[in-house]
Description:
It is a single chain. The protein is α/β, with parallel strands linked by helices and 363 residues long. 29% of the residues lie in helices and 26% in strands. It contains 10 helices and 15 strands. Strand 2 and strand 3 form a beta hairpin. The strands form 2 sheets. Strands 1, 2, 3, 4, 5, 6, 7, 8 and 9 form a 9-stranded mixed β-sheet that branches. It has a 6-stranded parallel β-sheet with strand order 12-11-10-13-14-15, with helices on one face.
Amino acid sequence: MPQRLLTRIQARSALRAHLSADETVVLFPGLGHLEPDGSHWHVPIHGEVFANGRQVGLGKRFLLKMLQRAMKVPESAFQTDLFRQRIARFLAADCRGRQITVRLGEGLQVLTKKSRRNGHFFGSLRLPAEVAPGPDPSDCGGAARVMLEIHGRGEEVPAIRGKAYLLPATGLSVISDIDDTLKHSYVACKRTLLANTFLRRYEAIAGMSDLFRQWAAKGAAFHYVSSSPWQLYGHLADHLAQEGFPDGSFHLRAFRLRDHLMRRLLMLRRSGKAAVIRGILQTFPQRRFVLVGDSGEIDPEIYGVLARRFPQQVAGIYIRQIEGPGDTPARYQHALRGVPYEVVRLFHTAEELQDVRLELPLK
């Protein structure tokens, strides 16, 4: 039997054996990079497996009560379709130990490691450079888009699709926060933050999508790095797409409702972003980066550290100023010490960044 056919039969058998009909797989859009010898693209794979509709345990029902108490809202607030949609992934059953097979082009590969306790799975594929697609002008900053497929629940069920970007070694990337940078979240008030997360429709910050589209037209790639949990990925991605933000990779936070009190959801927003951004910069040492964030969290401090460590790569730091105790000259002076003056821009509205010349060298 030909090896290719044997591999395909084995892959399909593994899928049928490890995924049931009520389980859903989501692939998150990631970044592929060309290996040093130029022969292959390294394509990281990250996704999750979960099942909606299974019985919600006592622990999760208790945490829903805690969430209601923290938000100080009546029980009727949790009966809306919008709340059910936002909370659904948090209440879904995480599927551990699932074997995942991914199709990239004509190849099928079974990921070495099964899904973790929180349903997330990780792996990587190697794509020969000679068969990789070329960049599409409509894609993420000159990156080539590759489509991924998971045939998880038998031949009669449509394939589950995802995508990854093959990002060139050189060029310009925009790494942007989401909450209070691209949409109103009001992280400074935890009660309001929770209401905006679970009860209200997302509200985009005026002008930011237009600004990002202008930058995309000049060849910038986009990477959305947020402390929001992966459970909100679908809602955030849909919101950014509906508002016209450029396509790009997503980098969010792992969070498991049953493992944390609700206050941990709030505390998670203070950590993790620096390591994610540092990893992107280290993976693409020849690219230049613009970091966009806000003063509501610790973006100025994170970006200042990164600019001092990677001075040749960080071409711009743009901080949206949010009125409050943290919006002070002393804070910015300390957080951004040692960063060249021309690299930093503080702004209140997107119009204040219209004069930025997003090109290399950045001015």
